[in-house]
Task: structure prediction
Amino acid sequence: MLIGHISDLHVLDLTDVRPWQFANKRMAGGLNLLLGRARHHREALLEAALVKMGDLGVEHVVLSGDLSNLSFPCEFNHVGDLLRKYGEAERYTIVPGNHDRYTFSSLLGSTFERSLSDFVNQSTAVEETARWELGEWSWPRLRLFEDVALIALDSASHQPPVFSGGRIGRHQRQRLRALLESEQLGERYRVVVLHHPLRPPPHRRFDWGRGLSDRRALLKLCREGGVDLVMHGHNHCFQLARMGGVLVCEAGSVSASEPKHERHRAKFVCYQIEGGRLVRLTSWVHRGASGFVENVQWSPGQPLPEFGDGG
Result:
């Protein structure tokens, strides 16, 4: 099975948005867009990546959060329409990022889940009795394929201005533990998907206020539960490492348009999984007129940086 991994789309759409809808954290976000962030993400690169994945024969696409910029319903509707141009909702597994819970009202109203319900509903809530956490929507959510089990976590939460951190929380971790101990996963390759990373990015000296607050607890659970791979986003750069024996990969931002900064060029990742094991991992990077070209290819057995509990 060939799985594609894209992240940090940051699609912007202000259709029918009213000025008073910026009277919250969106005021800071809107100012950031005016100062240049809007130019750093191009929808055309996202579409080019989806076309390239189709050419490569990708069977399923994972989106690890920050689909929107300001968590407006019109942004989520725009993303949904765009994704459907390249496949039905069942082709995708999605999780929210901090930009998808940008305001308290978007968290309380489950705007991400309601606006993209046909995508979210492709996965099954792990424990239906836990619906109080996000209204009728519950995480983790599970997708089972012949050789792969995809477990989608929600690490996003509304944060004050300037902050962009996340948390899985005790209830999600309890359900994840129960799931990893169950027999329904069988011998499938176990993949956990979330938005926030399990360790600080190497290019940042300080990560306070933007990381995953309970990453050590989550990594411990993944290690004990036999998780093979963790996919995430958030830092907008490609990273691949092992943490306590668990392979951890960040795809990079699929829409990034900063050709002067190699770290922030548009990227996506493909994973070839056969017989319940990873055969090959390939990172693709956008090179201007050349489009997306192969950037890094890795297979089990090759050396990787090794980290402990996330620092």
Remarks:
- The radius of gyration is 18 Å.
